[in-house]
Amino acid sequence: MARDILVTGGGTGIGRAVARHFARQGDRVTVTGRRLGPLKELADETGARALVCDHTEPDQLTRLLGELPEGIDVLVNNAGGNTGFDADGRTDLAAYARDFRANLDANLITAALTTKALEDRLAEGGAVVHIGSIAADQGAGSYGAAKAGLATWNISLSQELGPRGVTANVVAPGYIADTEFFRDKLTAERRDQLVAATATGRAGTPDDIAATVAFLASPAARHITGQVLHVNGGAHTTR
Ligand code: NDP
Q1: What is the CATH number of domain 4-231?
Q2: Minimal CA–CA distance to 115: which of 163, 72, 53, 81?
Q3: What does pTM read for this prediction?
Q4: Which residues pair with 208 in a beta bridge?
Q5: What are the pLDDT digits (tens) for 50-67?
Q6: Residues lining ligand 1, judged by CB closer than 6 Å?
């Protein structure tokens, strides 16, 4: 049966692959983001609905609710990224506070606000999947801290939603190619280092992540909740 899926940040990279995966399965997909262009392209390709929303903004989320179906079966909190790539290089304390908060906003507040806005609409038996990061276990400053916070907050979310049969999990990617994540900041040398850190000897792909998200949202995964599932080719292991 077709389900209603919301993928935040669904116009590019991992979110786009997740949206395509669900659309191919025959689900009804809505994608959001701040730029209409990439969303529209995906909508034209897949039949998904494209809605502009900045998920750090409560007012925009409230407006988004009016556009969404009454029931959401799968919420994918994918919007985010390392806002440190956009920092202007200022090093005073005010700039530090601004830059630190930007990562918390982009990666933690987006997921928390979106889930709060939608909690009454999450359908019984549904799933919430957040996109975390290997950075939560490896540092990366305020970005890693935000992704670690996301994973910890998800534990209480899973406890709140569990009685309704709704699961809540984090998929934590390692290095994933073919996204806008690194802007133009990824040198060939750094890329080689990231690939060399894997046991599989390759970069991850957005489809690797999409398949894992789809599994967590599937009937096969109804007893998996409150977890972080790592998809990184062995670049970080949990034992
Ligand atoms: P992209 O930059 O391609 O995708 C991020 C998407 O999120 C964009 O479509 C962007 O669109 C959207 N977005 C960002 N902020 C907001 C916001 N405030 N409101 C709405 N949409 C927003 O990179 P990825 O696909 O790689 O990133 C997806 C997720 O994967 C992120 O959470 C990232 O942290 C995580 N990740 C990525 C890794 C990688 O190696 N690529 C590794 C580990 C984790 P727009 O700018 O139009 O809003």
Answers
A1: 3.40.50.720
A2: 72
A3: 0.98
A4: none
A5: 999 999 999 999 999 999
A6: 8-9, 11-15, 32-35, 53-56, 78-81, 106-107, 110, 131, 133, 173, 175-176, 179-181
